[in-house]
Description:
Two copies of one chain form a homodimer.
Chain A: H1 4-9, H2 17-29, H3 34-44, H4 50-62, E1 66-69, E2 76-79, E3 85-89, E4 95-98, H5 102-111, E5 116-123, H6 126-130
Parallel strand pairs in A: 3-5
Antiparallel strand pairs in A: 1-2, 3-4
Helix pairs in contact in A: 2-3, 3-4
The structure holds a DNA duplex (25 and 25 nucleotides).
Amino acid sequence: MQNYQDMLKSSTLKSTPQRLAILSTINSKGHATIEEIYSDIKESFPSISLATIYKNIASLKDEQIVSEVCNHDKPKFEITKEPHAHFICKKCGEIEDIDFSKAITKEIDKRYPNSYKELYIYGLCSKCSKYN
Amino acid sequence: MQNYQDMLKSSTLKSTPQRLAILSTINSKGHATIEEIYSDIKESFPSISLATIYKNIASLKDEQIVSEVCNHDKPKFEITKEPHAHFICKKCGEIEDIDFSKAITKEIDKRYPNSYKELYIYGLCSKCSKYN
DNA sequence: TTCTGTGCAAATCTTTTGCATGGCA
DNA sequence: TGCCATGCAAAAGATTTGCACAGAA
């Protein structure tokens, strides 16, 4: 895996401290909302503007460097990786990446070739199910 | 299948002309955004307010009479039915209901019992793929 | 110098809330 | 009468836009 600087350079986007900060925040959280990214970066980078986050998330999505995860709530963003499924906790909203099983992937590809798939599984995460 | 009036009566919600109109609009479109529901109903019901649509969609969701379909864009709503997957056209945004295969359902239930699943498949719908 | 990216402020859109009114049990 | 639902208007929140400035190629 290349580093973020290289990923940006091989896209149409320039590498800037703000963009690197956005990517590293998303990476360290796994999945983050705009607001989370903003407040996280603001600590080490007080002058950053919310508009910069919005603009950059839009361009990073265009370049497919980050992807949006749809969770019926605030959209969250992740670094684009191999297609995978998401387990979303319906209590706390935490998102975990899980693997598509081969069976599922094959099944879908057979019926819908050339399609992009997203699978969401909603349940209680291990933390939340402890208190239930 | 019972009619909407009965569905409402067996919930905590009263049956009102506005609610019936919302349900029948969603039903006839299959999947509709707030804006689509609003402008559709406004024709036959000019005095209806957007706030009424928002409030009712929220309560109808609480009662699980309608469900939200996550499509990375404007949320769309459908009448709640058996769990099923969605095919979303990445060009025009149209949503089609498709069946979960038994294989997929079983596979997921084995690994994630008591979970609710959503499967989205993104591709080009038949209309859009004609012009591609 | 030129171009892209940034940050601020304003503008726009979307959604929610408060409140007075209306209608039904 | 007592509720709940509606519609309006205002408020709040989220996102986008315009513009001037800064920094890197």
